[in-house]
């Protein structure tokens, strides 16, 4: 039996590797349209910022590794033009056909460059692919720092702003919506905005870019533009083949990563996942989720019965040195789900003062009707990931705020205060329930 | 109505403060036999090590604060000799009587100094009370470093060993059992032992001290001995009053912190708590638990209906710079509970290599029969607390290993690798289930 996988980054190669492990006899071919596979895309902003010397250091394994160690045929520069599912074959751009019995679509996401006129001009850069990141870094190393505009206030835009500041550029960050990180949390946005200001990033919220010219963005002068908005699931092939899409525009899958077409699976940034707090499908493209989905798609394509239950919307980003992490729903998002959110922000220290405890702020959101924990944010310099992960774990377990407030968390002076900041926040929020 | 509290440290003052907040009219008296209240006892080893200049910096609030801000009468040097519950009064050492309607016993733990002959000799120190810690620190600052023996391989013994090494002492660490941290986990013990050896601590396991003399411990020469073993719940008053004790020797309480005697509550290191993994009572004296128990005892004594569900056995300790954290059950402990544990240790990095990711080791234990997660350990230099807390939260939720392996945890290169070490361990352990 042959398994074909379209896409050779996180989800595609996780699927192929997992299928290989479960079925040593399977024939597996991975088709990647670019010339690079298996690179850590999330590292590209840090390559641009100079933290990683060569982008190839971000490559986990090369095509030869997959062939040699896992007997997976990885073909680069192999662009699929059409899924001809009735004939169980793929037509490549070269005209060649590749047949399959099982197919995993892992075509990822792409930036909609048509959305903003002028976005293909030479002064416009992105960090979506190694080639684009290399082009941006070369420019930053070549020219004297001047004025840059970053379009998009999601995590890639925030990482881009940080990277540009390290080269000494004056940075304007333009976000169309009222909030950063697509979080609908004005308190969180205010905290990040204060920090951006402190680092010399000129944030403009509610700024919908009309067009880019050689001179800048709309009426704002800029010598360089980083486009970090307009990410869309890359679903052209799947849609043309007749796979059902969800409301988000991404490919609808069940918890086995099956699309509406028998024998075709989808995983990664092109696919939806279940949001375990809302109980509805969502599109939250992230590398961690892509890896998990890919493993389940590969396992199920190889005949195993595994499932991917879904996500709770956890993410973390470093914003000019500040750790910002979110999970679950903000109060505004919860309200739109018909819930009755109560929330609180608390400020405490991340460990004992004599261990140089640093300020950390925690927001928790809970539902007044059910008492259930709905989401949270953690903002601070240190130990942010661990604390958001505790909240995320509680969301997976549908824990009540009361149970959450009694968690037996680790304490010793070098590591935490006796009341961990997340427990402190839980205590405060219980008073409002 | 009057609430009396015996003991003025973590549990006692949490109980008094919580009762005050819930009932402004309550009369509250706290009786503390020593002359200091409300100090962070867990900080004493770091005071000895020189991290904290003055032990008074560990005092959170003084007696005057409680009187002024919370209208709680805190009496120091007020030793209770007897609980005369039939008459609802306490008899103090001074002969005075203090009446009550509700009583919270928060008498803590104490070291059994009778257990080892010679343990009251001048060369024997401890870190249990501010006075003892001051005496030890003065000695360390006064004399040239020579040979020291630390008796007890629990977290206080390990912290003592670290503190003595910072003064340049040669340290022998003597533990009666086969394992450190009372964990019954030979793999964990081996990892800590390797690290202790690297830091010049001479660890002797299975070493039951017979006696201490002016010259040292048994046949081992030592110029200074730190006693960090033999901690026992301080239950004399409760037992004499007729309160039921558990198998552990600590005071038996229900989830409202009620003892077997109506109107008498117990909280903190003198009381048992429910172990949420075994479903049985246990005695795990820790400051965090004492605070939580105290709050619930105070709330219930003031007439509210709150509950303390229990603990999962989480703790963390810094061992000569290495973070060591445990939660739930080890495989050996699970086996004694009649479970069928499978376990795995995995070694990975705590974040991307280009963010100076450092090695971190994770152990997970799960039950083969039910698939449920039972416990874990995390050992590493950084981000240890956050990871053990994720495991602890999953234990509270009785999560299966399968669900645990799909947790939506935060990822970005500055914070974590794409597969968090705890998820990596879960993936490995699933293969053995």
3D architecture notes:
Two copies of one chain form a homodimer. Chain A is an alpha/beta fold and 433 residues long. Chain A folds into three domains: 2-37 and 59-109 and 231-301, FAD/NAD(P)-binding domain, CATH 3.50.50.60; 124-227, FAD/NAD(P)-binding domain (3-Layer(bba) Sandwich), CATH 3.50.50.60; 321-430, Enolase-like, domain 1 (2-Layer Sandwich), CATH 3.30.390.30. Helices cover 27% and strands 25% of the residues of chain A. The first copy, chain A, is built from twelve helices and 25 strands. Chain A has helices spanning 10-22, 44-48, 63-70, 130-142, 155-166, 186-198, 236-241, 287-301, 331-336, 384-396, 401-405, 421-430, and strands at 2-6, 27-31, 73-75, 80-84, 89-92, 97-99, 102-105, 109-111, 124-125, 147-151, 170-175, 201-205, 212-213, 216-217, 220-221, 224-227, 231-233, 264-266, 273-275, 280-282, 315-319, 322-328, 341-349, 359-367, 373-380. In chain A, the strands form seven sheets. Chain A has a five-stranded parallel sheet with strand order 3-2-1-7-18. A five-stranded parallel sheet of chain A has the order 9-16-10-11-12. In chain A, strand 21 and strand 22 form a beta hairpin. In chain A, helix 1 runs parallel beside helix 8. The longest helix of chain A has 15 residues, at 287-301. The radius of gyration of chain A is 23 Å and the shape is globular. The model of chain A has no long low-confidence stretch (mean pLDDT 96). At the A-B interface, helix 8, strand 21, strand 22 and helix 10 of A face helix 8, strand 21, strand 22 and helix 10 of B.
